[in-house]
């Protein structure tokens, strides 16, 4: 797959407005350099100008840390012998705050023709007024502003969903939830009772069928053999006859033993 390179007609440049009130100089310069180069866009190309125009207002309210306004110097040389001039950062912030920000941003851009071209898209103003209102109205919004719009839209949607309707307090919602849970529990108990009844009926049917099988009587036929009742009687009779037959012999033996004595 060939490397993607944006064409001039595909590049869309927007306008970004940044308020420097209360911001730190170095952090503001990083943000501005990123927007000028277009590093926040997916079609960023190091050798092409795909960034946006940046307008900075309230440059006179920029801040620095660690007392840099008292110990950092800005140097300028006229090109002639002895033409070196130096000024404190605090003095420069009082007289030319726009140049302080411009120098900070310039140090974070490429040192070539592309960097000089990118720096021309930076507009800095000490106050709140600027002459670029028409550009902000007519040009399309940049990816950062579109993302912010999407985030704000999603936040407003979530807020409208969470808000309770007028005239319908949240107590009613809780009541409906409790009613639904009660109905669910009742339906579950009914299902359990029905299943218990069904199991009891099955057990009763099983017992009745077992009793019916125990009480079944097989009808006797004329040709069939006698049942177990008469057989037991004949056996008892035979046993009685055998006992009667053995008793006389026992009596004779007892008599013979008495005679011998």
Folded structure, characterized:
The protein has helices at residues 25-37, 68-71, 89-95, 97-106, 113-119, 133-138, 143-162, 170-214, 228-260, and strands at 15-19, 53-57, 73-77, 84-88, 122-124. The protein is mainly alpha-helical and 261 residues long. Helix 1 links the parallel strand 1 and strand 2. The relative contact order is 0.08.
Helix-strand blueprint:
Elements: E1 15-19, H1 25-37, E2 53-57, H2 68-71, E3 73-77, E4 84-88, H3 89-95, H4 97-106, H5 113-119, E5 122-124, H6 133-138, H7 143-162, H8 170-214, H9 228-260
Helix pairs in contact: 1-4, 3-4
Rg over CA atoms: 55 Å
Give the termini separation.
138 Å
Major sheet: arrangement of strands? 1-2-5
Helix/sheet category: mainly alpha
Proportion of residues in β-strands: 5-15%
Largest sheet: 3 strands, parallel
Count of β-strands: 5
Topology as a string of helices (H) and strands (E): EHEHEEHHHEHHHH
The low-confidence parts are 221-246
Question: What descriptive keywords fit this protein?
Answer:
single chain, 261 residues, mainly alpha, 3-stranded parallel sheet, two-stranded antiparallel ribbon, 9 helices, 56% helix
């Amino acid at each position: 797959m060939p490397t993607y390179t944006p064409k001039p007609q595909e590049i869309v440049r927007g306008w970004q407005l940044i308020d420097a009130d209360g911001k730190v100089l170095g952090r503001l310069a990083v943000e501005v350099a990123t927007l000028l180069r277009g590093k926040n866009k997916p079609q960023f190309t190091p050798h092409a100008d795909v960034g946006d125009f940046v307008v900075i207002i309230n440059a006179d309210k920029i801040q620095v840390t660690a007392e840099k306004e008292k110990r950092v110097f800005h140097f300028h040389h006229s090109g002639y012998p002895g033409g070196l001039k130096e000024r404190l950062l605090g003095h420069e912030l009082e007289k030319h705050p726009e140049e302080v920000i411009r120098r900070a941003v310039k140090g974070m851009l490429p040192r070539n023709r592309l960097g000089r071209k990118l720096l021309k898209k930076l507009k800095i103003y000490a106050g709140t007024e600027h002459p670029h209102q028409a550009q902000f109205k007519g040009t399309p919004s940049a990816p950062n502003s579109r993302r912010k719009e999407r985030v704000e839209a999603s936040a407003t949607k979530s807020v409208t969903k969470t808000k309770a309707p007028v005239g319908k307090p949240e107590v009613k919602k809780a009541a409906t939830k409790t009613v639904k849970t009660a109905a669910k529990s009742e339906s579950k108990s009914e299902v359990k009772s029905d299943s218990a009844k069904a199991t009891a009926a099955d057990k009763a049917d099983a017992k009745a069928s077992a009793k019916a099988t125990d009480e079944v009587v097989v009808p006797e036929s004329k040709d069939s053999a006698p049942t177990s009742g008469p057989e037991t009687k004949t056996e008892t009779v035979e046993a009685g006859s055998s006992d009667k037959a053995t008793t006389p012999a026992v009596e004779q033996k007892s008599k013979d033993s008495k005679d011998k004595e």
